[in-house]
Specification:
Length: 185
């Protein structure tokens, strides 16, 4: 099975290829997708997949990720990519100055669409916002700590075992495997 992961982030495509290895071959395509605005990560991911399929006409995976910080009333939420691009980690840390509650949750929606079947799997991971540490990863990884270690301090393999995206991709892998078994029966 060949699936196109539509994302501008090659790290995400590599992570998906690793998790879906043996089940699906992942092709990476970078494409501008209109930025959808919903309160739900799953709705945004599903809308992106429908759009990507309408252009490419082949099975696709898209994703969307939100960072939800209770001390900031859930900000940046579903606007995490825009906030990362505009104020970055330094801006988030500035906004959090003076807050004792540093908790945060990452949520990713992974959407598959092949023109007939659509499935959205989500993954969440809880952590806290800290002063940047580590030199791997991307985006919020240096400031998002889980069990004393930031995502940027983890190897790619370690991160792929526990990340919000990995949880969503593993759920998608399970669903795809079941769909393939059904198709072959």
């Amino acid at each position: 099975m060949r699936i196109t992961f539509v994302t501008s982030n090659e790290h995400k495509a590599r992570e998906a290829a690793g998790i879906l290895a043996g089940l699906a071959e992942i092709e990476h395509v970078s494409m501008d997708i209109p930025e959808l605005r919903y309160d739900s990560i799953a709705e945004i991911a599903a809308g992106k997949a429908a759009y990507a399929f309408s252009v490419l006409k082949r099975p696709v995976i898209t994703d969307d990720t939100g960072l939800f910080i209770p001390a900031l009333n859930g900000f940046p939420g579903t606007c995490a990519a825009y906030v990362q691009k505009t104020i970055g980690n330094a801006g988030i840390l500035t906004l959090m100055a003076g807050f004792a509650n540093r908790s945060a949750t990452f949520e990713t929606g992974i959407a598959y669409y092949d023109g007939v079947r659509q499935k959205v799997c989500t993954g969440t991971i809880d952590g806290k916002i800290v002063v940047p540490r580590g030199c791997s990863g991307f985006g919020y990884d240096p400031v998002f700590e889980v069990d004393g270690v930031t995502l940027a301090e983890m190897t790619e393999e370690e991160k792929n075992r526990i990340s919000h995206r990995a949880i969503g991709l593993h759920a998608l892998r399970d669903w795809l495997a079941e769909e393939l078994r059904r198709d072959q029966a």
